[in-house]
Amino acid sequence: MKKDITIKGPASIVLISDTAIESSELCEALRLNPSFDFEQCATPLAELNGHASDLAAAHDLVIFQSSRMDDRDISAIEEIRRKTAGKAVILALSDENMTLAQVQRLRNSGVDDVFAESIPAKQHGGKIMGWLEGPGG
């Protein structure tokens, strides 16, 4: 799905995670890259309530990672989609235990892409830049 975003200056990215990944290779890469204005939110997506939509509206790209993917997460993603009129780019990080059915459920709820958190940060960066530049990463 093509997203119409025009970026002036560094791209604004928020990482929403309910686990302590602040020192991960991905976070370090995003934090140190001058092309990104990076923010981290250490709260589960589902517990952000309406604030998740505010974060999505204030950033060019939302990355979320959840130790569990449940109905509350799906509802939060659907709310982001509704409140941002589909303009938010939403990427999900998956762990090695996520099933194909869960990935499909995320995609059906409005997530643009799902990628494994275990891939190297350089590949994450490439996917992120791809989504910021146009459709499909």
Give the secondary structure arrangement, pairings included.
Elements lengths: L10 E7 L7 H8 L3 E6 L9 H8 L2 E5 L5 H13 L5 E6 L5 H10 L3 E4 L4 H13 L4
Parallel strand pairs: 1-2, 1-3, 3-4, 4-5
Helix pairs in contact: 1-5, 2-3
Task: Characterize the structure shown.
The chain is of the alpha/beta class and 137 residues long. It has helices at 25-32, 51-58, 71-83, 100-109, 121-133, and strands at 11-17, 36-41, 61-65, 89-94, 113-116. The protein is globular. It starts with 10 loop residues before the first strand and ends with a helix.
Describe the structure using short key phrases.
137 residues; alpha/beta; five-stranded parallel β-sheet; 5 strands; 38% helix; globular
Q: Note the main sheet.
A: 5 strands, parallel
Envelope shape: globular
Query: Helix amount, in percent?
Result: 25-40%
Count of individual beta strands:
5
Order of helices and strands: EHEHEHEHEH
Q: Could you tell me how far the N terminus lies from the C terminus, measured between alpha carbons in angstroms?
A: 10 Å
Q: What's the Cα radius of gyration?
A: 13 Å
Task: Look at the helices and sheets and give the structural class.
Answer: alpha/beta
Strand order of the largest sheet: 2-1-3-4-5
Mean pLDDT: 81
Counting DSSP H or I runs of 4 or more residues, the number of helices is 5
Query: Which percent range describes the beta-strand content?
Result: 15-25%
Low-confidence stretches: 1-7
